[in-house]
């Protein structure tokens, strides 16, 4: 499954209302735990990290910025 599709599905399941979604909370938790096994913290795509690891919101700069100077200016 493409990461973008997985992101959209997770967003819908996590952020939607329980009545609207129709997925029991224990099934959702099992799904999230399975994804955490497939995508451990050190290898999780940046777009999935906030959904799978809410308790760890601090994603280091080297995970999402590539090729930018470390000190100050971008020009």
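Q: What amino acid sequence fits the structure above?
A:
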């Amino acid at each position: 499954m493409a990461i973008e599709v997985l992101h959209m599905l997770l967003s819908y399941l996590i952020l939607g209302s329980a009545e609207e979604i129709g997925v029991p909370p224990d099934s959702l938790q099992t799904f999230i735990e399975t994804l955490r096994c497939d995508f451990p913290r050190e290898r999780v795509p940046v777009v999935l990290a906030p959904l799978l690891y809410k308790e760890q919101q601090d994603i280091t700069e080297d995970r999402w910025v590539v090729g930018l100077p470390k000190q100050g200016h971008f020009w």
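Q: And what stands out in the fold?
A: Residues 24-55 form one domain.
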